[in-house]
Amino acid sequence: MAETKLVTITIDGKAYQVPAGSNLVDAAKWHADNDIPVFCYHPKMAPVGMCRMCVVELGMVEKDRATGEVIMENGQPKVRWMPKLQTACTQVATDGMVVRTDTDKVKAGRESVIEFLLTSHPLDCPICDKGGECPLQNLTMAHGNGVSRMNFADKLKLDKHVPLGDLIYLDEERCIQCARCIRFQDEIVGDDVLAFHERGRRLQIITKSDPGFDTYFSGNTTDICPVGALTTADFRFGARPWELTDVPSICPHDAAGTNISLSTRLDRDFGGRAMIKRVMPRQNEAVNEIWISDRTRFVHHFTRSDDRLQSPMVRRGERLSPTVWNEAIPALAEVLKAANGDVAVLAGGGASNEDLWELRQLLKGLGSERLGAWTTHSGAELLLEVGVGKGSNLGTLGKGDAILVVASDLEEEVPMWYLRVKQAQDRGAFLAVANHRPTRLAEIASQTERKVASQTERKPLVGKSVLYEAGKAAHWLNDLANSDPELYNTLKDAQNLVIIAGAEGLDWDGGRALMQAAANLLIAGGHVGKPNNGLMATLPEANGMGLQYLGYTTQNALDIIKNPPSVLITAQCDPLGDDPTAGSWMSKVNTLITLTLFPDDTTQRAAFALPVQSFAERDGTFINGERRVQRFYTAQGPMGDALPLWEIIARLRERLGQGRAKVSAAAVMLELSNHLPSFNGIRYKDLAQVERQYPDVGGKDLYYGGTAYQNKGGLGVQLPTTADNGSAPTTGTVNLPEVKQAKKGELLLIPTVRLYNRSHIMRPSALIANRVAKPFAALNNADAKKLGIKHGDRVEVRFNGGQATVTAQVSDSTPQGVVFVPRYLADTPTPMVITSASVVKVSDAVAVQ
Amino acid sequence: MNIIKGFRTTFKHLLEEPVTLQYPEQMRPFEARYKGRHHLRRYENGLEKCIGCALCAAACPADAIWVEAAENTDEERYSPGERYAKTYEINMLRCIFCGYCEDACPTQAIELGHEHQLSFTDRRDAIYTKEMLIDPVPSGGKPTPQKVEAGAFDRAIPDMPDPK
Ligand code: SF4
Ligand code: SF4
Ligand code: SF4
Ligand code: FES
Fold it and tell me: Which of A120, A127, A172, A227 to mutate to test the interface with B (most CBs of B within 10 A)?
């Protein structure tokens, strides 16, 4: 905002310099610290002027038409006042604007609006989930009349319990018809699933979709609803807001690194320990603004699921039996000593940097460097060179900029990026989406106009969606200059270019090639080493980037698979559950040690299964897909004997004579950042730095931005890429792998990602169970016909290492020769990378399951 | 002279009836507004008046009250509102019997009664649970949870005779 012209406006007698064209409510708050009360206006959405709460007296300094001089009267500039009160939210700051917010006329106006809103508002505050953090309550206290002139018995009686889908409930009596929820879905998410029904007094919110409120962002409407009309099924009556403790944390599910606040409270049913009652957004304008996805909000029950592994287990004969740390640690030390350095680690993206550092040091002490990253993605090392530049913020991409999303179903993989990419297009950025199948984001990209500015205006958009042949993402991108020069040049010549790469339909070689092709395009256009330019990848879980920074690579993982070590440690990953072929190489491992949250398939075969704490019970750091190191804090009471992963390894190292165990995660980070130059010597206190963010949301005035929390836990520190540090990256050769072919008579099986699935982390969240798809395989019409399969039939998909029985979904949107099998849906492990598979009909569709 | 005045007072009292009561065998009658230990009240039909709003806990200066709420359904209804107290506990060692909870309660569910003979040999016994605090079901009423007709209770907070 620094470049825009400043104008002078006068608010309550004092002059302020504010950017020309800024919204009057925003400007008054930011520059004059004057909170104009609002209900329908929201700083993230276009004003609609529906509630009239923001009325002010408005005037203009009069100027002489001939000379342009300000006309003076009694030594003061003469002001031409508007005859009636004006809504501040629909005004933009212009030079010479004069505003009064403290006159009797304004006070009377506000009081009347409150009185109108309360004509039929129920007296639910004592049990209303919003009570205590309710804009209507607060503004009534501040501006309302102390007594009601209305007859209580005359109030409208409406339905107080309307489920809008499984996740959100509507109380029709409490709604004040501000349309914030509708506008959020429509303007911000682009899932136009809510609407007003009827008119006047009968006006009500309804959902138009089936299933109801079908979007991945529904929870945000409960934050911005200025009353308790919308409440989440998850938190409903969970606690009163003033009883909650707010603990800053980071969403553990994906690479966005969404900043959250865990609202905790002691709980009887949880043994009197502190328990997460709700997950709320925490403002970080560079990461997630003030939004979170429904997965972030509703998938936290796994942290206290009884299914979690709660004591260390050691194999005695056929069975794993519980033991105590004091016995497990020495036994582990013996095993590791005996391995003579033939040890390796496979780590998943759920492990924090501190965990990964301790594991790395453990291996170093044992004389091994075999650190494998257990992930579907490869080529992540390029992110350290040409990743998005330091200071990038997807929220500032707009006209003249371009974004390419390739080989990813972004809505299912990283919903927060989906939201931000969609909004960048709204602001005028060119959005290109390329994949081998149609996705929701591709649909968004090819829309030529959308409702963005207001209820009536539609804004023209630029974008393109491309379909390439299955498995050929890298080929497509590498050849783009020839095959589609227009698109190539649009991307290359854009002012700023961000590429988001996924790994759908690619094996590790293909993924690496795609990343290199993307890097080459970025380098060719000079889109490296500067803000808002560079590469991002949808690395699974929260710390995929941390794996890379700590030296855990897919190459090493592939090497581990090829030459299995004598002792293998798996850290928060489940190779046997993820990959049906893992059994064959895993059998060559003598001793399997698993550090895990849940007793999973890998645990079944492990000699030692060690319970680790989830992100909620401990502190640590994750690095998000934009390389921002972010800190999460201890929120919930511990489960059983589980320990933080780093602590288990630190104790083990002490036992092995590798030095005294560290006592805190902060101490681990200190050592880590002292040793790894890429961490720039950051400390926990650097990660906890905060500053005032625009718009100023989450203060005492909950009516302005909603119940998103102010950031008190830290904005994190973005690590620079090598390009940021000045070394010019050079283009590399793209080693195009041979495209996987289906065997004769078989189809090419491509694993896909679903936001809601049946992984160990998802299952304990009963609330989303209805949103999890039944296990299915998606086939093309022609293929299905050939195989004699009809839509809805039960089929068996057979692949190397196993099979899965699922329901066939036959449609034209699946390309020919391909079968899509979503990961973590079927009862048995399904492939994690592209492979050949046969599909056989088992039985006809059953009418009712 | 003064000494005679003094003795006169002494003799006068010798003849008066003593005020000492043989507590606990004998007890003085209570003022109606005496604040003893709490009771959770029921409606005549047996439903609980408490709607689990935790305003009593918020008002309590000694932080003696612990409320955890849950949602009523027509199959399992505890209170006529949307919400009821799943857990309701008062720590009598903390309570200072100020009666603020009574003032805060929107449904007059909690009332301080006359029982004052509270003694414990274990700190834990001082925590009165909902079962200990709640009134017995009045005659003609049904115990909670009750199974009720669907839609019979559609208010978030039961309508009260005098909402002021
Ligand atoms: S929405 Fe606000 S004012 Fe209305 S009942 Fe709930 S807390 Fe009270
Ligand atoms: S439900 Fe809430 S956000 Fe939606 S219109 Fe009503 S008051 Fe506004
Ligand atoms: S006793 Fe009254 S104030 Fe306390 S939780 Fe129950 S209804 Fe609310
Ligand atoms: S009319 Fe301005 S905030 Fe509603």
Answer: A127
Chain B contact for A146, CB < 8 A?
Answer: no
Residue type, A753: V
Report the residue from B70, B155, B157 with minimal CB separation from A126.
B157
Domain shared by A14 and A96, yes or no? yes
Residue count of chain A, please give it.
849
In terms of residue numbers, what domain contains B143?
30-156
User: In this structure, is residue A244 part of a structural domain?
Assistant: no
The CATH number of the domain holding residue B143 is 3.30.70.3270
Phi, psi of A221 (to 5 degrees): -65, -30
Domain count, chain B: 1
How many angstroms separate the CA atoms of A137 and A132, rounded?
8
Q: Which of B81, B87, B154 sits opposite A268 (nearest CB)?
A: B87
Provide the token pair at A754. 């679903």
| Cα dihedral across residues A540, A542, A546, A551: positive or negative | negative
**Cα dihedral sign for B56, B57, B58, B63?**
positive
Q: What residue numbers bound the domain in which A657 lies?
A: 313-377+544-718
Biggest alpha carbon–alpha carbon distance for chain B: 87
Quote the pTM value. 0.95
Tell the residue number behind the tokens 């506990």, with chain if given.
B89
Q: Which residues of chain A have pLDDT under 70?
A: 1-3, 452-457, 846-849
| B14 inside domain | no
Phi and psi for A92 in degrees, rounded to 5? -110, 150
Residues of A in contact with B108 (CB under 8 A): none
Question: Is B71 an 8 Å CB contact of chain A?
Answer: yes
Which chain A residue has the Cα nearest residue B72?
A237
Closest approach of chain A CAs to the CA of B29, in angstroms? 36
- Identify whether B13 is part of a domain: no
Burial of A205 (0-12, 13-18, 19+ CB in 10 A): buried
Residue pair A249/A632 in contact (Cβ under 8 Å)? The answer is: yes
Residues A643 and A617 in one domain: yes
Q: Is A413 helix (H, G, I), strand (E, B) or coil?
A: helix
User: pLDDT per residue over A25-49, tens digit each?
Assistant: 999 999 999 999 999 999 999 999 9
Domain shared by A388 and A351, yes or no: no
Residue A835: C-alpha distances to residues A132, A287, A741, A742, A819 (Å):
55, 35, 8, 7, 10
Provide the domain count of chain A: 5
CATH of the domain at A755: 2.40.40.20
User: What is the DSSP code (8-state) at residue A275?
Assistant: E
Would you call B52 an interface residue with chain A, using a CB distance cutoff of 8 Å?
A: yes
* B1 within some domain: no
Dist. CA A441–CA A751, nearest whole Å: 18
Residue B115 lies inside a defined structural domain of this protein:
yes
Inter-residue contact A795 to A839 (CB < 8 Å) = yes
Task: Give residue B163's pLDDT band: very low, low, confident or very high (50, 70, 90).
Answer: very low
CA of B105 to the centre of ligand 3 (A): 5
The response to whether residue A442 sits with its C-beta less than 6 Å from ligand 4 reads no
ipTM of the complex: 0.89
Q: Does residue A217 fall inside a structural domain? A: yes
Nearest CA in chain A to B162: A152
Q: Taking CB atoms and an 8 Å cutoff, what residues of chain B touch A243?
A: 54, 57-58
Ligand 2 centroid vs A226 CA: distance in angstroms?
A: 7
Touching check for A349 and chain B: CB below 8 Å? no
> What CATH number did the domain enclosing A27 receive?
3.10.20.740
The pLDDT assigned to B164 comes to 35
Same domain, A208 and A100: no
What are the chain A neighbours of B83 within 8 Å (beta carbons)?
127, 237
Please indicate, yes or no, if residue A291 is contained in any of the structural domains: no
